[in-house]
Amino acid sequence: MGLEPDVGLADYYPLAYRRLVGTLRVMGVPGADAGEVAQEAFVRLIPRWDQIRSYDSPDGWLRTVAWRIWLNRRRHDKRTFALDELPEPPQPEGVHAADRLSLLAALKDLPEGHREAVVLHYLHDLPIARIATELAVAEGTVKSRLSRARSALATALTLEVDDV
């Protein structure tokens, strides 16, 4: 499977880079760091491109490598990082900026492992088994994290709606 045989790295890079940086940002990596981590993941991809482009999901390989780069950086850096404000994408009709900010705030309050599972499952539409592989945890752990994250998000977002 993988990408079409004629897809070169120059064609793949622009869109894959944006997706990767966006994923890292939602997972809690600050903006400048997300760009640097994504670049480093692509540097590691270049010598392996001929092999990785044949994978079912080259994006999955990049996400896994980028996330591990980030975790390694954090282990060596004692600072704590918060989910900073994401740039404003175009909003679909009926979606208000306040709704988006409420969701981002609720995601920010989730424990890191729960936020990772939510992003991979709901934004990238990955199945439980794939998430478990990418995060190097058991499938039951992913299910538990998703369940707890959904409960926390429902509580946080319901409270905000009820308060209005």
TrEMBL record:
Keyword terms of this UniProt record: DNA-binding, Sigma factor, Transcription, Transcription regulation
Gene3D superfamilies from the UniProt entry: 1.10.1740.10, Winged helix-like DNA-binding domain superfamily/Winged helix DNA-binding domain
Source species, domain of life: Bacteria
Domain RNA polymerase sigma-70 region: residue ranges: 17-80
Domain RNA polymerase sigma factor 70 region 4 type positions: 101-153
One Pfam family this sequence matches: Sigma70_r4_2
One GO BP: DNA-templated transcription initiation
Record-level Gene Ontology MF annotations: DNA binding; sigma factor activity
Protein family according to the UniProt entry: Belongs to the sigma-70 factor family. ECF subfamily.
Family annotation (PANTHER family): ECF RNA POLYMERASE SIGMA FACTOR SIGM, RNA POLYMERASE ECF-TYPE SIGMA FACTO
Protein name listed in UniProt: Sigma-70 family RNA polymerase sigma factor
